[in-house]
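Reviewers of the previous submission asked for a worked example of the structure-prediction workflow described in the proposal, so we include one complete record here. The input consisted solely of the amino acid sequence. No template or homolog information was supplied to the procedure at any stage.
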Amino acid sequence: MEALRIISDEHKNFWRIAVTLEHVADEIDQGEKVDPAFFESVFNYIENFADHAHHLKEDDHLFRLMRLRSDTAQPMIDALEDDHRLAKEHLNQLKDKFAKAKHGEYADLTQSLRDYTRRLKTHITKEETEAMPLARQILTAEDWHEIDTKFLDNQDPVFGEQARSDFRELYHRVVSLAPDSIGLGSHSSGTLDRYAKPVSGDILLKVTGLESSYGRIKALKGLNIEVRRGETVALVGANGAGKTTFLRALSGVQPMGAGEVWFDGEDVSGVRSDQRMRRGICHSPEGRQVFGPLSIEDNLRLGAYTQPKQYLAQDLERVYTMFPILKEKRQLPAGTLSGGQQQMLAIGRALMGRPKLLLLDEPSMGLAPLLVEEVFNVVKALKREGMTIILAEQNAFAALALADRGYVLETGEITLTGNGQDLIKNEKVRAAYLGM
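From that input alone, the workflow returned the following structure tokens.
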């Protein structure tokens, strides 16, 4: 039933878009100005993602087989497919109101935004609470095999990786242009995905018997972890499980009590944090920890202090291409940025160190829903480049869904390990961390 997971993930994105539009309607009512490019990016995302992919996948595969298996499902599916057919008309009506709002008719626009999001949320709720539970009951194993095979076909022009990459770019544009109260507040969108680099798959990081303490409290109790070059590895666990301590120990900020850390064929257990960074271990810490009084560009330059100066200009441009808002505000103090903008700065600062291994500690913590998905899109884009990543997250489902492998930490010990999808299906993980 992988198709249902994919559909639910897409529903979450649409729900975030709906909440964002509601927030924007409130801001317009309060007299705030919203960049027209933001609305155009939303319309483009909905048209391309919903009308050309999401609805098509459901109608042609899931709903078609549900019709074959159950006569009682017909009225519900008819209503949902009617929603799909009318969605384009409703979007065109919203676009007309937006065109008039350019001439000052904002009241009609805000009401149309709320009407549109109400219909969108109602439709998503019907699919999640009625259609998807019924599909689980009536579809056979053969049906699910057919549906999942189609949904997981990476070469398919509608379902495949290239299409998903295109949709991430469209979502990135929405987040970049959304007001900084809920997005990044940029005037341009930049580019997220780049070409994938080949990776060898050899062991880049090997940790054995790692222990670390805070006074008499042992935070890490003999951890053994391996990370292969090009992998994305998720660390999941509750608060206090040891995720942050482990990443701090890897980067050399937190003292080790015992164990060894081998990185790129070298024992770096006794190497200082700055020397580990020179070797390519770059850390985006929990809570962002930007240098508030310094300018945004100075924060980024500090991330590159271990690198040859000839790379500085091109590395800055790479970060600015991913996050144009940082370029727009580069001379301002980092402390003036919103939480989402500071998170992008923290990631950008780590990228300035040209990481062989990127450590991301709770990058989605405290962010607006629209930005949470954007953070994971950034991680997916870096993964596509072939970057090796350790991602520590309380958002266990999102982290495991994109990870090659995962480790579950409880009170400083590894209790489970496996590939990301297997851990998502694990009953213990689902009960403890996924709320299922």
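The chain has a mean pLDDT of 90. We consider this example representative of the routine output the project will generate in years two and three.
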